[in-house]
Amino acid sequence: MSTKDTVLALFEKNKGFFISGERIAEELNISRTAVWKAVKKLQSEGYEIKAVTNRGYCLDKESDVLTVRGIRSFLDDNSRNLRPEVFVRVDSTNTKCIEKANNGEPEGYVAVAGSQSAGRGRRGKDFFSPAESGIYMSILFRPVGLTENQVLHFTTMAAAAVSEAIEAVSDKKAEIKWVNDIFIDGKKVCGILSEASYGIQTGQLEYVIVGIGINAYEPAGGFPASIADIAGCVFDEPSTGLKNRLTAEILNRFMEYYKHLPDTPYSEEYIRRSMVTGKDVTVHKGKEMLKAHVLGIDEEFGLKVRYDDGSVEILRSGEVSIRI
Asked: Closest Cα partner for 84 from 107, 65, 108, 61?
C-alpha cells in the first residue's frame, strides 16, 4: 500500500476528527514531509481534507469521493478482473476509453471520473457533468461473434443494470425511458451512450464502449435552468461511500448480464421498467415530430408505436419524448 493510501486509511478511520501531522507521522512511521505530500495528493484527487494550524488534518465526515480502492471494495467475483481508473476530471470518459481501445487496451478497462469538461450524450448533445455530484464512467468491451443487432443490446443491458443498482443502493424506484434514460419520480437521473467500432478493412467488431452518466446528488447551485424541470438525482444527501458503492453495483450487474450474451436474461427486467408503455409520446424523426401511442417493447427491444393515422411501426433506434 502506498503512503497516500495508508494516510487515507487513517483519515477514514478517524473521519470527522482532526489528527495532527505529528501523530500521523508517528503512527505510520513516515516523515512529516511525507504526510504533507500525501495530504496534498489526496486533496488534488477531490478529498475534502481540512488543514488547521495547531489542530492538524480532518477528512470531512460527509466526504463521498470516487476511488479505485472504494470501488473495488464492492466488486463481486464477476467484476474482479475489471480495471477501474479514477480521474478527478476528464474531457469525456467515452473519449478516454476510445483512446485506450485504439492503443490496444484489453477488455475490462473502466474510466471513472468525478466530472467531465466535454461530456457527450446521444445525437451529439452535451452531457451536464459537474464536479462532486455525479458519477461518469465508461467500460471497454471486446465481444466476439456478436451480430450488429446484438451489439445494440449493450445500451439496454446497461439500462437494466443501472436501474437495479440504483434500487439496491437507494431504495428508490427506477424506470427506463426508451431507449437509454433512467428516471426516478419523473426526473432523469442517468443517461447512457454506447459506441461501437468496426475495422475498416475487415468490417469486424473491434470494441464497444458503454458510457454511463449519473446524477448522484444535486449539484451545488442546482441544475441549469435548461434542464431544471427534468433533471433529478439518486441520493437526497451525500454520505460516505455511496458513489463508490453505486459504481460497483452497476458494474456487478452489468458483468453478470454480459457473461450471458448473446442471450438476454435482462429483457424482462428492461421491459417491466418501461415508463412509456401505454403512454402517448412524441417520436422524433429528424426535424419531424410525430404523435404516437406506445403499444409495447418487443423481444429485440424495439418500441412498437401506433401513430394518429392508425399506422404501426417498430422503432429500432431514435428518440421519443413524453410529458411527465
From this structure: 108
